[in-house]
Predict the structure of Periplasmic chaperone for outer membrane proteins Skp.
Amino acid sequence: MKKISPMISLVAAVLLLAGLIAPAPALAAKAAPGPSVGYVDRQQVFNSYPGIQDLLRQIQSMREAAQKDYDARSKDLSPGERKALSDTIAREEAQREDALMKPVGDKIEASIKAVAGEKGLPAIVDAGIIVYGGVDITADVIAKVKQ
């Protein structure tokens, strides 16, 4: 076997190292324009939603009415019939609540997407999972929801 001279080995190592390091500044420059992840505190946005307290009170009233309905209708039923009645009332109640809450969720989601687009953020996550970095868009989403 032929021996490779130390000079050729050194030149090869330098070229290899230069090839590995050279792309790093170019990649850093591409990533430098700004953050690519935003975060939002959805609970804070929900609590700031216009009229949300009235809506929650309406849902609570509906639940109380459903409980009274169950109590009145289940007096003379067997345990199996009570379970079936309870399931039916619960399913109907969930549908009514979903119908009331869907517009709220839709508007919050649309507001998050709009703010993300305005800020050029391709990804938005919940504030509860952020440890470091990112852009907080909560205040902007609340402002958009209130429009």
